[in-house]
Amino acid sequence: QVQLQESGPGLVKPSETLSLTCTVFGGSISRYYWSWIRQPPGKGLDWIGNIYNSGSTKYNPSLKSRVTISVDTSKNQFSLKLTSLTAADTAVYYCARVSVGQCPNGVCYTAFDPWGQGTLVTVSS
Amino acid sequence: DIQMTQSPSSLSASAGDRVTMTCRSSQTISNYLNWYQQRPGTAPKLLIYAASSLQSGVPSRFSGSGSGTDFTLTITSLQPEDFATYYCQQSYSTPHTFGQGTKVEIK
After folding, report:
1. Residue A24 and which of A31, A70, B47, B78 are 20 to 30 A apart at CA?
2. Of B46, B50, B98, the CB nearest to A113
């Protein structure tokens, strides 16, 4: 079955850019949609954005100006770039597959499954 | 954005208890509602999708119900491994939003 693993730096300085990679094992990245979600320490879950197998993306408007999600099919990986970091971006970052079900009336049932184990990113000087 | 509100924020229960928690959306989302379980230090795990469909491999003591704006997750006969935080999430529209979570603690 599909498994995901995040990788990237654990510590990044304020104002710098975060780059994270999610490697997909056990399935072709081209067949599915993918997502990034984050969780500040002790808090709830925040959706960052999705990338679809067409290459199109959707981002959370709260982060849209700072986020880029991309796919590298040759490596079976997708990536997250988040610019202009502040302490508020400190969080565990998860990658996840977007499972898609039926689409009645043009709105598809989707869910995040499975998830990677998560990687803690701390923004601090 | 669609706001998701869960209640209670935490509850205490004993093994074997029946537990119910609720999730309310700020606008109607039909049944575009998922539930996740997160044990401490681990990633969330999908339990229920489309409000009431049990994800493969999830024990049948978990069930979901609801439509429109009000949803419920029920755990019958709580097991030790069920002590965790539960999140609802709407998939009706982007940005996909989560509730703040309900933490199930040991009484």
Report:
1. B47
2. B46
- Residues of chain A in contact with residue B99, where contact means CB-CB under 8 angstroms, are 44
- Disruptive mutation site among A57, A100, A113 for chain B (greatest number of B CBs within 10 Å): A113
Question: Would you list the DSSP string of chain A?
Answer: --EEEEE--SEE-TTS-EEEEEEEESS-GGGSEEEEEEE-TTS--EEEEEE-TTS-EEE-TTTTTTEEEEEETTTTEEEEEE-S--GGG-EEEEEEEEEE---GGG---EEEEEE---EEEEE--
pLDDT digits (tens, 9 = 90+) for A75-122: 999 999 999 999 999 999 999 999 998 888 888 999 999 999 999 999
pLDDT along chain B (107 residues), means of 10: 98 96 98 97 98 97 98 96 97 97 95
